[in-house]
Write a structure and sequence with these properties.
This protein has a domain of 60 residues: Hypothetical protein rpa1041 (Alpha-Beta Plaits). Strands 1-3-2 form a three-stranded antiparallel beta sheet. It contains three helices and three strands; from the N terminus they run H-E-H-E-E-H. By secondary structure, the chain is of the alpha+beta class.
Length: 107
């Protein structure tokens, strides 16, 4: 068995200090503000804050909006129900907006 020599007495405390140091770094990262890994609750925005998506319907209730979204999904159009500050909006990509409006008008 190989011996650590005269430095073997420092090995135990050194491992303990490294372990405590890693815990300190990990806990500081975990509880730091503004850099959380946990997703925040989405905040409703205005209609123009949803990037490329275009509004195709402005229903009055979320139930009506979900029915319209499901209708578009069944027709093969990717649709999103967005809770905006003005109320629920059904949004699609601009390339599918015309077809989505036609489908919703027929319903």
């Amino acid at each position: 068995m190989q011996s650590w020599g005269s430095y073997s007495f420092a090995f135990g405390p050194l491992v303990a200090f490294v372990a405590v140091g890693l815990l300190v770094v990990l806990l500081r990262w975990t509880y730091s503000r503004g850099k959380s890994v946990v997703e925040r609750r989405p905040q409703p925005g205005t209609e123009d804050e949803y990037g490329l998506l275009e509004v195709v319907s402005k229903p009055t209730t979320f139930i009506e909006a979900e029915v319209q979204r499901r209708t578009l999904l069944d027709a093969g159009i990717r649709a999103t129900l967005a809770p905006t500050t003005e109320g629920p909006r059904v949004m699609v990509f601009p390339t599918e907006a015309g077809l989505a409006r036609q489908i919703l008008e027929q319903r």
